[in-house]
Amino acid sequence: MAECASEMNREAMAATAIAHPNIALVKYWGKRDVERNIPAVGSLSITLDGLTTTTRVQFDAELSEDSFVLGGREAPEMQQRVARCLDCIRERAGTSLHARVESWNDFPTAAGLASSASGFAALVVAADQALAVGLPRAELADLARRSSGSAARSLFGGFVELRLTPDDERPTEVRRILEPAQWPLRVAVAVTEAGPKAVGSTEGMLLTERTSPYFQAWVESSEGDLAEARSAVERGDFEALAEISESSCLKMHAVMLSARPGLVYWNGATVECIRRVRELRADGVPVFFTVDAGPQVKAVCLPEAFDRVAGELQAVPGVTNLLESGLGEGARAVNP
Ligand code: 2P0
User: Fold this and answer.
1) What are phi and psi of 94, to 5 degrees?
2) Could you report the per-residue pLDDT of 4-44, keeping only the tens digit for each?
3) Which of 25, 116, 291 to mutate to test the pocket of ligand 1 (most atoms within 8 A of CB)?
4) For the structural domain made of 2-182, what CATH number should be given?
């Protein structure tokens, strides 16, 4: 009987969640506070539905430390970040139990496809559910943000804004601007290199802040960019969103390039894809590009343009794979 009860309890302390990566249209790069992982700028993103992270968390009184398995393999390099993220939920739950965490991505990890965003979003939702804490979504977003700035945005679906606030207790606020169905844009991801990136985002941000003469200008112009993008989304103005998104992307890469040593996340195919997207838009095709801390190019388009955009990008030499996505929902618990 006692054994049965403990077995039930063990089952009750497990949960599985899924989350999707998100792509920033107005980019986050730089930290206001490194220790607390507070971004230097706000950001605006779309959550994808075509790429998914699935994470199972099992708290267990018999464990003496947390363990983390990614894609079926131990991932010791991520262990500490995962444990720190779990600490936040444990603190809210008033427990010191350790957990076994298993996570799977159905897309390349750490290659500029925002796997840390979907990873930490799924982790906080699964841990919250496993310990039956029931934290509000805004608080889960705040906890995810402490582990990975972009993860806060994957707690929400559709078009999402992360804003900086003057409140030191809750320095960021995340909200959904539009639901996916309100403006169902499509995204073609041209994969040009599937390996992990050479310089991780956190390291790259700190280097940029320390050494780029343009970093301050980047921070100062971000509020205006956000307002412009927010307004374009609220009005459903594709051309305006295209202009501000490409501008924010190129400005972020300009700041990265101006670090010492300069951060070059692109390869030749990245540049060719950017050129192709620009030619298409000049031809009247409703599409724009964005590129993150990796060489993949994300082409965001109106649904009717998707097949043409995907076909054109697939034909660019150096594009090894093309992933398709629509806009998706925020992180959520799923039945085991
Ligand atoms: C973004 N990136 O807004 C930007 C654009 C990459 C380029 O957020 O240091 O993994 O863990 O808070 O969230 C990637 O950075 O960085 C990112 P940390 P994160 O999507």
Assistant:
1) 65, 40
2) 444 445 557 999 999 999 999 999 999 999 999 999 999 99
3) 116
4) 3.30.230.10
How many angstroms separate the alpha carbon of residue 11 from the centre of ligand 1?
A: 34
* Alpha carbon distance 159, 45 (integer Å): 6
Instruction: Say if CB 121 and CB 155 are below 8 A apart.
Output: yes
Q: Within the chain, which residue ranges are assigned CATH 3.30.230.10? A: 2-182
Binding site membership of 116 for ligand 1 (Cβ less than 6 Å): yes
Encoded tokens for 233: 């989304």
In angstroms, what is the span from residue 144 Cα to ligand 1's centroid?
12
Q: Compute the distance from residue 204 Cα to the ligand 1 centre, in Å.
A: 10
Q: CB-based contacts of 309: which residues, under 8 Å, 6+ apart?
A: 188, 277, 280, 285, 287, 299, 301
For the whole model, what pTM was predicted? 0.94
